[in-house]
Amino acid sequence: IDAEAVAAAEAAQAGLAKPAGALGVLESLSAQLAGIARTCPPAVPAKPAVGVFAGDHGVLAQGVTPWPSDITFVMCNVFQQGGAAINVLARAAGASVTVVDMGVAGPFAEGPGAEGGAELVSKKVRPGTADLAKGPALTRDEAIQALEAGIEVANTLIDGGADLLITGDMGIGNTTPSAALIAALTGTAADVVTGRGTGIDDEMLAHKTSIVADAVARISADADGVEVLAEVGGLEHAGIAGFVLGAAARGIPVILDGVIAGSAALVAQKIAPASVGYCIAGHRSFEPGHRIALEQLGLRPLLELDLRLGEGTGAALSVPIVQAAARILTEMATLASVMAGGQ
Amino acid sequence: IDAEAVAAAEAAQAGLAKPAGALGVLESLSAQLAGIARTCPPAVPAKPAVGVFAGDHGVLAQGVTPWPSDITFVMCNVFQQGGAAINVLARAAGASVTVVDMGVAGPFAEGPGAEGGAELVSKKVRPGTADLAKGPALTRDEAIQALEAGIEVANTLIDGGADLLITGDMGIGNTTPSAALIAALTGTAADVVTGRGTGIDDEMLAHKTSIVADAVARISADADGVEVLAEVGGLEHAGIAGFVLGAAARGIPVILDGVIAGSAALVAQKIAPASVGYCIAGHRSFEPGHRIALEQLGLRPLLELDLRLGEGTGAALSVPIVQAAARILTEMATLASVMAGGQ
Hints:
With 343 residues, chain A is of the alpha/beta class. Chain A folds into two domains: 54 residues, Nicotinate-nucleotide-dimethylbenzimidazole phosphoribosyltransferase (CobT), small domain (5,6-Dimethylbenzimidazole Phosphoribosyltransferase, Chain: A, domain 1, Orthogonal Bundle); 276 residues, Nicotinate-nucleotide-dimethylbenzimidazole phosphoribosyltransferase (CobT), large domain (Rossmann fold, 3-Layer(aba) Sandwich). The first copy, chain A, contains 15 helices and six strands. In chain A, α10 packs across α11. The longest helix of chain A has 20 residues. Chain A is globular. The model of chain A has no long low-confidence stretch (mean pLDDT 96). At the A-B interface, α3, α4 and α14 of A face α3, α4 and α14 of B.
């Protein structure tokens, strides 16, 4: 991001009609937006777009969640109809929702959304990953294909006018690959980063943790980002990592949702460290690994409301804060104008 | 608030197309809104209104802040012109702003706002409080008059269609009476609740803390809410306490801003404990006393973004979250409809 625009925003904040620093995180966020836009003040984001990346997971064979993988395609249909939480929160934020089939195992038909619902787009790489407990989840070629699909989705949305991207995910079992990605990419022990996802008991958690630990142990210390992604990741994680890379390449800010996005952003960071400068952490989820991921990314979450749903819900909920940060730079009076008695 | 409507909202949340509890604080907030509205689902708040209560403080004679009291009336003019942070954030939230002169020492002229600015209303009780370091800040009659003015402002806004009230404040020096109110009403030591306000050094902080401690020591253990308010409060604190009482009496939710509102809500709680049920903590400010106040109120803040500006900024920034909580109950599909294949 552009250091001169960041400095200009910091200087502008110091000259607004308020004590220096009194708007806290809104001030640093406004400077980041200026840096991303490479100009100060940055335009207020007016056309946010959620990309919900969906996929299934071979590791479900190991019993890491009580939910069946069919929920993944069922929820994609709910997204299309407009009745899911992300539809509600995206409508509230004035954001479009595009659901991307990266690797749904069940039926998924491309098509426009119902009134207030999401468009469904297919970028299916394969119908679910292989079981990461038994070997690589993806081949290297599949991982690259999925990353490229995420980049394509970002480009399509930006070409359509989107000026703020929002990550979302849907995939039963996807906190297991997230924990593995975070463990591998931050060097943290599996039992620290593995959580209960959408609600599992102590026994299932211990089992899930040992699967994560064993899978991560297969990864060599000098593995690159694509190799880590292929070994223990998911197709929606790959799509989101590509989405982040695509947003960064186009100079558009991207709001990360919860632990799935956090783990995917670590992959993007490993591939292209500068991509993190374009990321905003929409919220911190209840999952323990998310905190570890955000620390390594150097991102402070805008919201901490104990959400653990995914879909992009926490990120969508933070859109007004991002817009407000830009508006402050654009619309507030300066101290100089107040002192001069004018406005 | 209505326990049946709360229970109905909790039952409704459990039946929506998501895992139970996965929307965290949005779920409990939606239940509170249902309880306040006495029906489930509650209407989505559509007409939020900020009341910015302004006043000056005799304790400025003691040197508790580097800022001159003239800033209070100058900022009221900025509010009217529309260039202050609260104007920007209120416009972003679709909220009106009304600035109420509770006790501004400088010139203050009632009148409508400029385009995008705030209306100014006078309820002046006296031009600033007496010096709380030397005796009561207000007489009991003045405190009651100021509480009644706050109730009147709430009634006027609600009669005008407001369905969500937002507290704001302006008053140079007003973190000193806030610290004293919090110390007195929570039984917490002055050095724990007294903070740096808008930026003071160690020496001034020690002086401010001793003033708070000495003033609180004058209050008898059996003092009622009005007595505490009169002894160590401020006129804007009294106005906000009345605003909260007025909102609660009319069954309208009220979002509290920072430490000034937190201390004022403690006064409202002391006078009418049930009023807290109508309060939502918009954010937690940087001031140390705010955490203590929120604990006693039993409120969890929606945002923690290190804001320390006042004016209602943190509360205005939280409006979309409150609206989103209500929308979830209104617009999300149920699990039953998803299972049945319909929407």
